[in-house]
Prior knowledge:
Shape: globular
Oligomer: single chain
Number of strands: 6
Helix content: 40-55%
CATH class: Alpha Beta
Mean pLDDT: 97
CATH topology: Nucleotidyltransferase, domain 5
Strand content: 15-25%
Number of helices: 10
Distance between the termini: 32 Å
Strand order of the largest sheet: 4-3-2-1-5-6
Structural class: alpha/beta
Number of domains: 1
Order of helices and strands: EEEHHEHEHHEHHHHH
Largest sheet: 6 strands, mixed
Radius of gyration: 17 Å
CATH architecture: 2-Layer Sandwich
Amino acid sequence: MSWWQEPLVGFDLETTGTDPAVSRIVTAALVDTVGSRQQGTTSWLLDPGVPIPADAEAIHGIGDDLVRAKGRPAKEAVEEIAAALCERLTAGRPVVAFNAPFDLSLLDAELRRHGLPALAERLGGPVAPVLDALAIDRAVDRYRKGSRTLQRVCEVYGVELTDAHEAGSDALAAVRVAVALGRRYPRQVGEVPLAELHASQVGWYREWAEGLQDWLRRGKDPQAVVDPRWPLR
């Protein structure tokens, strides 16, 4: 069978902000699937230890009162999230995300913040295999116009997104978009061995980042820098 018919795990975070180096985790979810069929969801609600900005609360609907009343201590929950993610990777189950460098880099930053082992330390090597539905979509349909938000990409591939910006819903949608990409683009994506597809995404993401950086520098921001590293910064 192709990888998109086999066990996968979707991963998503909702956070206090958009900078993975400084933002904190508010909710996290791992959704285990076989292909696009959901098997189970593990989710966490954290007290990030800092105020949740109003603009972040407006996106995911989670505020300070809720996390203080019901959120887990951040260090304890971050350890559990990392352990669960690495357990699946060690078992050979690919991690699927939408914009992987954000979620994985933010989790790694949280681990460092709390003095816990980083993902690569736990795995004894690279964080792999990772499937980034956004990076793949950009590569195989690079000239499609319009936004590349998860909501919009779900529309393109006929994937239902039941509750946008809820971590479990977003994680499952990322898996289903990846599966749809595998079906639609068998030679480029669906029939490619996971190790090779992971390596291809490294190059695809670098090419996209360098192109965006060049475009920004020719326009309004001559000093623009777009980090080309994937799946972790």
